[in-house]
Amino acid sequence: MSQIVRHKISKYIALSDSDWAIIQPKWEEVSFTKGEFITREGQIEDYFYIVKNGVQRLYFNKEENEVCLGFSYNHSWSGGYESFITRKPSRMAIQALSNSQLFRISHPDLQKIYANCPIMERWGRLILEELLTMRATREMEMMSFTSEERYNMLLKRSKHLLQLVPQKHIASYLGMTPETFSRLRAKS
Amino acid sequence: MSQIVRHKISKYIALSDSDWAIIQPKWEEVSFTKGEFITREGQIEDYFYIVKNGVQRLYFNKEENEVCLGFSYNHSWSGGYESFITRKPSRMAIQALSNSQLFRISHPDLQKIYANCPIMERWGRLILEELLTMRATREMEMMSFTSEERYNMLLKRSKHLLQLVPQKHIASYLGMTPETFSRLRAKS
DNA sequence: CGCCGAGTTGAACTGAATCAAGAAACGTGG
DNA sequence: CCACGTTTCTTGATTCAGTTCAACTCGGCG
Fold it and tell me: Which positions ≥6 away from B44 have C-beta within 8 Å?
């Protein structure tokens, strides 16, 4: 299994060779073509992912339309984390927006690792701390900024997304319609 | 230290008497009078809290006005979790809305416990899982429901809040002005 | 009492959504 | 490699949910 996974985990905890020997076989690599679903709404999320390459979107359905919650790419985490944690059918779906390769570990395997490898329990805690603070920042921004402010912040923070994913998904991620997004673009 | 803390932690993990003997002395009880600040904006959050009694609000300042992110009461968790995790000055503040007693543990003490008591590392992970899924639900609801829908959901889910805290804070928590909240009330 | 913050109600305003119609970009098969 | 259909993006006109501003009521408390 790729050094990417080991390297990524090692950013959070010190991983001995013997730890890695336990963990390594549990990860597998999977591929998805553009447009394919990695997780569907209604299914229980069985995997936690690390992105090798490609871009994916996390979203949910609200009546007729889709609301985007985030994107994953590079070597970031991915997966329907809510369902992965609660073991209930996922309200979120994940779709590959480009051909993608991901590493993944199954829920039962991760539980075994937590049980056999105490340092990995810490890794789980640290990842959750990171996810929680990222979501807290997003929540504060969505609640207090106007559409225009959110658009400008995205420009400053992750302009590259504009090249990677269709604007309609970014618009949805920012909590506005594609029309509003397009008008904000025209302004600057 | 109160059985409340032990009982609360025991809902997540099996706690032996020897574990408890390590953990127990690290918790202390503190009191705040109505209106007092438990955590101020700009300070680094040093404690993680369990509420013994009273109600508190978690909020942040956006220019002139305050945006409410949540309430704590009963035996729920409390604290400026973002700053507690990141060790950076808190963007969030916590204020006692009624006379309150809380149990708390300091950040350094919790780190020592994580190091000495592996089962508690799991407790930390499980709490974060819970906090993250709660925030995910809130994020989805704030992004996809109208003011009226959010008002109705709050009524169904936690009507008791109306008796506990001023309406202006609930309005802010639901992402609307006090005027809009009042008009929605009048409708039903 | 009289003050002050909280809640209500009305009227005017506005940011963003919706509806609609073209233009541009994309990808698929011949 | 081009042609055609589909999706995405843009632009304009209209509408609407919710904010803002303002005036008034109510209840608690010095």
Answer: B83, B87, B88, B89, B90
Residue A186 CB closer than 7 angstroms to strand D? yes
Minimum CA–CA partner of B62 in chain A? A144
Centre a 10 Å sphere on the Cβ of residue B160 and count the other Cβ atoms it contains.
10
**DSSP string over A10-31:** HTTS---HHHHHHHGGG-EEEE
CA distance B27 to A15: 32
Q: How far is the CA of B118 from the C1' of D10 (A)?
A: 57
Query: Smallest CA–C1' separation from A151: which nucleotide?
Result: C16
Residue of B nearest to A115 (CA): B122
Confidence (pTM)? 0.95
Chain B 162-181 residues in 7 Å CB range of strand C: 166-168, 178-179, 181
State how far the Cα of B58 lies from the Cα of B165, in Å rounded to an integer: 12
Which nucleotides on strand C sit less than 7 A from a protein beta carbon? 6-11, 15-20
Check CB contact under 8 Å for B140 and A69.
yes
Residue B142 and residue A140: Cβ atoms within 8 Å? no
Phi and psi angles of residue A25, each rounded to the nearest 5 degrees, phi first: -65, -15
Tokens of B150: 């959010």
What backbone torsions phi and psi does residue B13 show, to the nearest 5 degrees?
-140, 160
One digit per residue, the tens of pLDDT, for chain B of length 188 reads 689 999 999 999 999 999 999 999 999 999 999 999 999 999 999 999 999 999 999 999 998 899 999 999 999 999 999 999 999 999 999 999 999 999 999 999 999 999 999 999 999 999 999 999 999 999 999 999 999 999 999 999 999 999 999 999 999 999 999 999 999 999 88
The spacing between the Cα labelled CA in A38 and the C1' in D2, in angstroms, equals 35
> Which of 2.130.10.10, 3.90.1150.30, 2.10.25.10, 2.60.120.10 would CATH assign to domain A2-117?
2.60.120.10
CA angle (A136 as vertex; A134, A142 as ends), nearest 5? 105
Strand order in the sheet with B100-106: B28-32, B100-106, B47-53, B77-78
